């Protein structure tokens, strides 16, 4: 009985989502991720998980012509408000000096919020040149999160080179 309990606890600990190490979230990175349909260079940042939450993430990949695909995972349950898989709403991006209202759409397959972000638009400029950014959803189902922008300019420049060749 004793050994069986330890084995079950060990398996449960292995299956539980592991929080990001704090050092994983110290600055932006541009790395190749495995995605549906292949591999994609991804510029990303996270905040470490706490308690039962998943880590929150903000990441960009090449999107439609002239834009990145920006995605925000608040680290919560990943469920849309009222279970609506077609949900869309406003997220305020703020760096302490300026605020941008961004219309985002829930992506049911990944449980994240999505918006196109123009290569030369104000959102990408904010992400590239500020010290930190706070995302505040109007919908309280999603949590407000603050991300460092340390290294974002370099990560986004690498991503821009990859996206321009498409």
Structure description:
The protein has 166 residues and is an alpha+beta fold. The protein has a single domain, classed as Invasion associated locus B (IalB) protein (Immunoglobulin-like, Sandwich). 21% of the residues lie in helices and 39% in strands. The protein is built from 3 helices and 9 strands, in the order αβββββββαββα. The protein has helices spanning 2-15, 122-129, 152-164, and strands at 29-35, 38-47, 56-62, 67-73, 88-94, 99-107, 112-118, 132-137, 145-148. A 9-stranded antiparallel β-sheet has the order 1-2-3-4-7-6-5-8-9, covered by helices on one side. α2 packs across α3 (152-164). The longest helix is centred in the N-terminal third of the chain and has 14 residues, at 2-15. 25% of the residues are buried. The model is unreliable at 2-20 (pLDDT under 50).
């Amino acid at each position: 009985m004793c050994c069986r309990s330890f084995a079950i606890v060990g398996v449960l600990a292995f299956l539980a989502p592991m929080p990001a190490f704090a050092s994983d979230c110290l600055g932006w990175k541009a790395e190749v991720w495995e995605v549906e349909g292949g591999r994609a260079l991804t510029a990303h940042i996270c905040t470490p998980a706490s308690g039962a939450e998943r880590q929150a993430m903000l990441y960009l990949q090449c999107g439609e012509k002239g834009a990145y695909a920006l995605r925000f995972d608040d680290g919560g349950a990943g469920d849309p408000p009222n279970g609506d898989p077609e949900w869309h709403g406003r997220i305020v991006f703020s760096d302490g000096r300026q605020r941008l209202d961004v219309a985002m759409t829930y992506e049911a397959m990944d449980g994240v919020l999505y918006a196109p972000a123009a290569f030369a638009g104000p959102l990408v400029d904010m992400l590239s040149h500020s010290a930190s950014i706070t995302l505040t959803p109007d919908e309280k189902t999603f949590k407000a999160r603050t991300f460092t922008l340390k290294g974002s300019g370099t990560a986004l420049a690498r991503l821009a080179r990859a996206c321009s060749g498409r």
